[in-house]
Amino acid sequence: MMVTTLAVGAILGGCVISNNDSFANDTSATQVSEKQNHEQLLKEAKSLAEDGKQVSNIDAYKKITSDEVHKVLGESINSETDGDVVIRDVYKAKKYALIFHYKKNGKSSVIDSIKVEPFNP
Fold this sequence. Notes:
Elements: H1 2-50, H2 66-73, E1 78-82, E2 85-93, E3 96-105, E4 108-118
Antiparallel strand pairs: 1-2, 2-3, 3-4
C-alpha cells in the first residue's frame, strides 16, 4: 500500500513539474505582450496630450510602473519623489503638460492618474 502511494505521488509530481515548465513559458510570453501593451498605451497618452486631450480609460494604465513610463517617454521635465519612489512626473507634449501621478506599490510606483493641462514653464 505504501509503495503504491509513493509511485502515484511520483507520477503526479512529474506531471506537475512538467506543467510548471510550460506555465513559466506562457508567463514570459504574457509579460512581453503586457510590456508591449503598456508601451503602446504610453505612446497613445502622449499623442492624446499633444492634442490637448485627456486619457479616457485610466484603468488600462493602472498597472504601468514609473520605470516603464521613464523607459518609453524618457526623463521627465519635473519629477517628485517620496524617498526612492516616484510619485509624480511631468512631460512636455507640445503646448501641454502630461502629468502622471503614481501610488506606491512596494518599492516602486504604478500610475494612479493622468492629467493633461496647458504647459506653463
